[in-house]
Amino acid sequence: MTAPFAIDLRNAETFPTRRVEDWKWSDLRKFLRAAPEPSPALAVAPGGPFAALGGEEIAFGNGRDSAGASEVGYVARGRETLRLRFVTDASGTGHQARATVEVEAGAALLLLETYEGSGSAYVANAGLSLKLGKGARLTRIVLLDDQADALSISAAEVALSEGAVFEQTVLASGARLQRHETRVAHPGHGASVRLDGLYVLGGERHADLTTVVEHAGVGGETRQLTKGVVSGRARGVFQGRIVVAHGADKTDARMGHHALILSDRAEVDAKPELEIYADDVACAHGNTIGALDENALFYARARGIPEPEARAMLTEAFLGEVLDRIEDERVREFARGWLGARLEALS
Amino acid sequence: MSSLSPETVQTVAGLEKYKHGFSTDIEQEFAPKGLNTDVIRFISEKKGEPEWMLEWRLAAYERWQAMEEPTWAKVDYTPVDYQDLYYYAAPKQKAGPKSLDEIDPEILETYKKLGIPLKEQEVLAGVEGASRYAVDAVFDSVSVVTTFREELAKAGVIFMPISEALREHPELVRQYLGSVVPVSDNYFAALNSAVFSDGSFVYVPPGVRCPMELSTYFRINASSTGQFERTLIIADKGAYVSYLEGCTAPMRDENQLHAAVVELVALDDAEIKYSTVQNWYPGDAEGKGGIYNFVTKRADCRGDRSKVSWTQVETGSAVTWKYPSCLLKGDGASGEFYSIAITNGRQQADTGTKMVHLGPNTRSRIISKGVSAGRSTNTYRGLVSAHPKAKGARNFTQCDSLLIGKDCAAHTVPYVEARNSQAQFEHEATTTRLSDDQLFYAMQRGLSQEEAVALLVNGFVRDVLQQLPMEFAVEAQKLVAISLEGSVG
Fold this sequence. Notes:
The complex is a heterodimer. By secondary structure, chain A is mostly beta strands. Chain A has helices at about 30, 295-300, 305-325, 330-345, and strands spanning about 35-40, 55-60, 70-75, 80-90, 95-105, 110-120, 125-130, 135-145, 150-160, 165-170, 175-185, 190-200, 205-215, 220-230, 235-245, 250-260, 265-275, 280-290. In chain A, strands 1, 3, 5, 7, 9, 11, 13, 15 and 17 form a 9-stranded parallel beta sheet that branches. In chain B, the strands form 3 sheets. Chain B has a 10-stranded mixed beta sheet with strand order 4-3-7-9-12-14-17-20-22-24. A 6-stranded parallel beta barrel of chain B has the order 13-15-18-21-19-16. Chain B is an alpha/beta fold. Chain B has helices at about 5-15, 35-45, 50-65, 105-115, 120-125, 150-155, 160-170, 170-175, 185-195, 435-445, 450-460, 460-465, 470-485; strands spanning about 30, 90, 135-140, 140-145, 160, 200-205, 215-220, 230-235, 240-250, 255-260, 260-265, 270-280, 290-300, 305-315, 320, 325-330, 335-345, 350, 355, 365-375, 375-385, 395-405, 410-420, 425-435.
């Protein structure tokens, strides 16, 4: 796996091709051969999709915050909410930004991370370092809203301390190439990780959700559920890897990826990987790809529900399982609204 | 015991574990060491091949030289020095038609020790009701004998060494050779295409159900020798054949290369069942010696409703790189892959399958059971893909890994690519360790620890063992137990 921050938009040599194993289904070089021109400065009005949830706000406009910095740090010490916004309004240009977020021991942070793209054919690259102290809790919601012809890359490395809890839900709607990568260093010892994802793709959009969790210590837990639906000529990619290091006994890791393909020209590629170097573990993954269950559809129609509505209902129920796992009710409701609107846009 | 050196104790223990580790001392003929066009010409001439075959080999050699050895598998080994190998080794024998009497008694003795019946009457004299099977025995680079040929010929089945098929049925060989695994498919396939020496050729005519099990027994004997066999099996419309291969080699400190290519072609309504019990010498407990098993196996299910079933029991080899695959082209074609891979000591196995759904209503099923013990590494790597035209494609995959001990590793690397809305793919994988409770229970009933492990592991792999032809299932079950000796405690 390429390190999360290996891509530097100023240097075309760092753009992976599909010959790089971890980018085999997302060929960046195919769309981006040379370093893009830098994007112009952009002033961002406060707010964003999660404005109603309040909290602190850090906003990058075309890769720079209000002070002109492309690297920003934040430390959470109590129970806090942070809206971290990567706002783009650019055409044919590129920019990148880095953020470091630390949640101190015993603190709790709700991180609402949004990618808000307008303009066209831009290239956006974001890198995040997330650190959790002992017993800290980080709930990360990632909303990827990019233009259909954009290239959007976001990579995060997450380091947990003992007893920390990291929960993540990624909502992706794709772009020409949208890649979201999360790498978690899992220390075990009571720490727990939930990594969820949802993709709803139409047109010719492409979304790639890639995760790597490395269990280094005893007694770690990981739960992963990613679901997606693709239509038109869209392509969904899921790559999940769980590594259990030598000695990381009593690790309990479960990974699931389930996708629906609605059109004959759409595609789903999946690679759920287990790499195990310890013997006292319970690891499992499941992967299903297919169409809606005809029996369920028949049942719904037999109850007098017209076919298009029955399909919409079943699709929403299928994907909704991911959102049910979001604990914060306001966020969950927001995500449901997002999903509903996305599904409507598909049909 | 105290008077014995630890090395001796270890050697003796090793001997018991790998009972096929002896070598046969006979006079052999070699090609000059190393690989170049002269060696390829030498092999081709030795086989009395037609001109087109030599050209095919030379073209393959040229392609191979431009290729790079693949490094993506999760295996780590000392690179092979391709110029330090013999590419052809054959027991010296008299010219003329082959009959058992003319074969070097040492070789007959070797096969007898390995438990392979080469005398047809021996097979016939077996237990009443026991099914008979025909054997093609390949010793280093040549086939030494093929049994039951006449009886098979009566049914119209051609079963002979591929070198002979090249002379007697050149049109069939030319039509199908390289049509499933192209010359430049991969590094080892290209190498094999250039230097392959022998292997089996099977043709089952339309509507014929092959009257007996066919099998090939591969034996590497000479040192510093690579074995490059080539097997080609064609089941014509409505035909059925079941084929089994077994492999062993002497215990040597050096690593020996085995790079085979197996091509299967199934036409309309044909079925091929291909079973492998691979027990090449795995090297000693410290990882010294053993076979590098770099094999390309692929089935082309061209015909509608054709079916190919791969079953493999992989217990040997120091390093295994092997992915028996199915190209499912015909309407309603189906492919199956049942695998048991057991690694112990310092063995490394990277094995799995590819199910490529190209035609409509194609089905595939993958059941893989990996067992890692000692300091070994065992990887399942597989691909299931559906082309846009493969409407109604179905796949079910189950990969289970069992870990025995703290220092082994088990990996699962499945690739799934679905390109139409009517494909239905399901994949499940689990990794667990041998349960202490079950072990305790079995031992409390009076089994020794090793017996208990063998019992539990045999239970774990049962779904696959059931797919083997009966007489080999028993053998495989014993092999499972032997492979895991010394893995616990």
